[in-house]
Amino acid sequence: MYKILKAEQLTANIFLMDVEAPRVARHCEPGQFVIVKMDEKGERIPLTICDYDREAGTITIVFQPVGASTTKMKELKAGVYFRDFTGPLGNASELVEEDIEELKKKKILFVGGGVGAAPVYPQVKWLHEHGVDVIIGSKTKDMLILEKEMEAVSGNYYPCTDDGSYGHAGMVTTMVEELVEKGNKYDVCIAIGPMIMMKFVCLLTKKLEIPTVVSMNPIMVDGTGMCGACRLHVGDEIKFACVDGPEFDGHLVNFDEAMKRQQMYKTQEGRAMLKLQEGDTHHGGCGQCGGDE
Question: How far apart are the C-alpha atoms of 161 and 280, rounded to whole Å?
């Protein structure tokens, strides 16, 4: 059992929780995720780790209710328990694996959208001393999250709102263009957010010749490679976001296919069609688990 130490509503539809999970906190790295279950019969919910405190043994998760389970989850209060809190899962950000001295020489840009600010935060925090630039976008000012936290750990923080009510008026892509036009030269961009946002960030950064990493956590369902929901093409290779990622070279990800597949996967008829189209590679890393049977 894993105790919820804090439950907070950040916006009208985004929620934060601090959970007591010492083993996960000891071993996790930026970029990884956990799977939570509210009770024995509950749905498995993959959530990116927003923050962690190794000494306190806590993990911070941020989520947006999109279905029955997460809608029920938002009602949980501090003092109650999750039945399961499994992790860390997935691969850590590739920045963690780089030589720290080489990393210090790089100019890094983070771009987040909506609840994508949550998985951006631990990476920016980990790179705190390097003063990275951070662009976070939302529809309105009220939908921005973790602003104070992001300002505290970034070199430059650029909030963007679609309606122009706060910060830069417009999409995150126009803010990227503005920074580049001002002479900023970035060695790498990390983009995390809605699929459509990541797609257009990658189209822009490819034109600007900025290598870009994206996190494909939005398409994960089961989180173990068994359900096959997060199957995608990265270049000529078939990958699964939960076991091979969640981070990939954004310029190689086929976003159009992934978004279309995400919609098809929601119905039994759609899953049957995907099984027919994809053959042996339809399910999980092995393609043989028979998850639709």
Answer: 44
Distance of CA 130 to the CA centre of its chain: 22
Which contiguous run of DSSP H or E holds residue 149?
Answer: helix 147-153
Structure-token pair, residue 60? 């911070």
Joined together, the tokens standing for residue 273 give 């069609």
Cα dihedral 44/48/51/53 (nearest 10): 50
Report strand pairing: 45-53 vs 58-63. Answer: antiparallel
- pLDDT < 70 stretches in the chain: 264-266, 270-271, 279-293
pLDDT tens sequence across 124-160: 999 987 889 999 999 999 999 999 999 999 999 999 9
What is the chain's Cα-based Rg? 19
pTM (predicted TM-score):
0.89
Tell me how far apart the alpha carbons of residues 221 and 46 are, in angstroms, rounded to a whole number. 7
d(CA 62, CA 51): 9
List C-alpha distances in Å: 204 to 50, 53, 55, 134, 191.
27, 36, 41, 16, 12
What is the per-residue pLDDT for 228?
77
